Amino acid sequence: MASLSTNSNGLRRVLFVDGAGERRGVHLGRLPQKAAEAFLRRVEELNANRIAGVSNSTELASWVRGLPDSIHAKLERVALVEPRAAATVRTVGELLDTFEQRAVVKPSTRKAYKQTLDSLRAFLGAETALQAVTAETADAWRKWIATDTTSVGRKRATADNRLSPATCAKRTFVARTVFRKAVRWKWIATSPFEGVQAGSQANPSRAFYVSAEATTAILGRCPDVEWRSIVGLTRYAGLRCPSELATLTWADIDWEAGRLTVRASKTEHHGGGHAVRHVPICPALRAILEEAFEQAAEGSTLVVPRTGCGNVNLRTTFEKIITRAGLVPWPRLFQNLRASCETDWVEAYPAHEVAAWMGHSPAVAAAHYLQRRDHHFQDVVANGLRGDAQSDARGAQNRAQQVPARNRKEPQPSPEDDALLRFMRTFAASCGELNKYSVGDEGLEPPTPSV
Description:
mainly alpha, hpI Integrase, Chain A, 18 helices, single chain
């Protein structure tokens, strides 16, 4: 049993006798009577468990864990609880290093992660305690990466040397992932980056459609058939360069079926059909591959050996080839070749089929690959919406009226022919008026009496 003692100054303490028969006391200060009585009951329970050698109940253990350090230390001095372990102070630098070490990702993804980790380390400070990083700090970091113009290393693509909105969105997404790991590892209770708006990772300003004419000009300036294969496989088959070209072998080409078997290292971790896909070989690409096969060295297996070298710089050489073709290098050289291929395909084939050939979903295609074409806009201006009866009639009328000039060497039409031509023009124009009216319930035939 324990008792509650109050002295003349109103200071309270709990008195009890421990298992060794010694009288012990816990000073509570000027604690209200009810609170002191509640604390007394907890002391009695703790003392009883100590004497009996049994564990504390879940509810009592939870109460002990929630005690302030000063109160917990008083219970430690009278041997009612075990000393608390010193709290481990985790730092920002420790979190970033651990995240980088434990991440199981492709080398290219690890490189992209490092850019975000470096910006977090620079802004937050490696020695800063994780508990000191607040939601306000996270918002300040998001604003900083969007407005900072003092980049280190390669010049940024934007005119004012800021990160593009898509890059800011990507880095925000990675930062949220990093601090979610800290929560999962129980290093912090909540993530200060939760709720920070990332934005869209799509960047339409860097999209560029590489036309068939431009592709032909570039192929004509390639120094060898291996470079023609790089351009052809990327522009005509939509392969990722260099990752998918680097693993393409001659055994992956089914000449009879006109099919490429492509191994996608970027999406293989998704499982299922994401590791391998089949891509059709168009005639233009087939001609390039046949030439490459004829010139391939005896015993070679890779279609494009140059891409299998990890340290090769394809970008610089390709920019020179584009310039020699009389063109200006565009952003994202190889991805825009791939995107141009998909843009052409979706105009002729179902979107789900094209997405399967490209190795991603129709949603990803719409967000990051499909590009606007000017001729679509002009087609609507000239001919209206497809399926619009009035627009179709107007188009027919325009075509009928736009009769090509007669060849002076051919026999001139007779007056009867001119009259027939005028009649046909009038008839074509009247079709547009007829399309305004629908057929009634009686149909085209006149009503007849029932038999």
